Amino acid sequence: MSSPSSSSEILSAKRETSRLENLADLVFGLALSVCALSLISSPPHTPAEAQTDIIWFMFSFMILIHIWTDYSGIMAVLPIETSVTLLLTELMLFLVVIQPYLLYLMNQSGEQLVEYASTLYALDLGGLMVISAFFYRELSMEEKRLVPQQSLARYGRMRDLHFIFAAWFFLTALPQFWSLQIDGTPTRFYLWIGPLIISWISRVSTWIKGHAKP
Question: For residues 138 and 144, is the Cβ–Cβ distance under 8 A?
Fold first, then answer.
């Protein structure tokens, strides 16, 4: 039978986790709202500009939703908040908060400013993927026994996949992927779509396997 002190410590840890998850939900929701408001603050003058704004918002929306769902799923499995996950969460929320500002800068005129903002945006995306990878690493460590044995391989694959995504985004921050353009659009913008496509394919594949008949 657990002592009163140990029980109170567990309840306190659960309350801290709940508060942190609530804060994360608020930050993600706020970031999505600011991204939408940035479209209103700078109305387009041509249909082409409107299309570009919608594409940028859709991309940012999908990235934030991807990170948000990953984080929510991980926190539902992690039993108690640790100092490592707390630090990673704080860093993750910072990277999420500055995304709308970087997106706003990329919609401004001036090639030098857009290049600088897009480089920071690529680093921001890479940082978010690294943090997700470390979260999955926590779950995939067998000695910690945080998840059932049969789930270790799946979390290990997610860890590796997010490390690859991080390297991918960091690579696109190189100047060469700005200079090299396709129809006047820097290559890095096209390359950013790759991890999203791979991620959705992986999710659909996992869902199909989970619902397949034995």
Answer: yes
